[in-house]
Amino acid sequence: MRLALRILLAFVAITAIPCGLLLVLRPDGSWLGLSTTLLQPTPFRSFLVPGLILSLLVGSANLQALVVHLRQGTNAFWHTLTAGVLIAGWIVVQIALIREFFWMQWLYLLAGFFIILISLQLKHKELI
């Protein structure tokens, strides 16, 4: 279980941080093959703010959770749970705002749910 959690946290962190930074550096989304037409139903006109949120909030939270979990820190449960909630929440809000659903969103939504479930399972085992 711990290995699966570490893999999921690493996967989210090493994909969210660079992709978010690419959106910040090229807010028109062209480096990731995205079009700003996706943003029409949202309050955003470029990918700058979503890129910042993706890299600085979602990606860094997953990276921090991974580091704390690897060091077996006392707050590892809260870090991993928060990381899972952030990625799952990010995807749910993204779907609600852009009103479209892509296969990759399924992948990240499932990653978020599994991070949450594994975190809860590991916390429960600590209490026994």
Q: How many distinct beta strands?
A: 0
Radius of gyration: 15 Å
Structural class: mainly alpha
Main sheet specs: none
Shape: elongated
Helices and strands, in order, run as: HHHH
Distance between the termini: 16 Å
Percent helix = over 70%
Task: List segments where confidence is low: pLDDT < 50 over at least 5 consecutive residues.
Answer: none
Number of H- or I-type helical stretches: 4
Q: Could you report the average pLDDT, rounded to the nearest whole number? A: 94
- The amount of beta strand, in percent, is under 5%
What does this structure look like?
The chain is mainly alpha-helical. It has 4 helices and no strands. It has helices spanning 2-25, 48-70, 76-98, 103-127. α2 (48-70) packs antiparallel against α3 and α3 runs antiparallel to α4. The longest helix is centred in the C-terminal third of the chain and has 25 residues, at 103-127. The two termini are 16 Å apart. The model has no long low-confidence stretch (mean pLDDT 94).
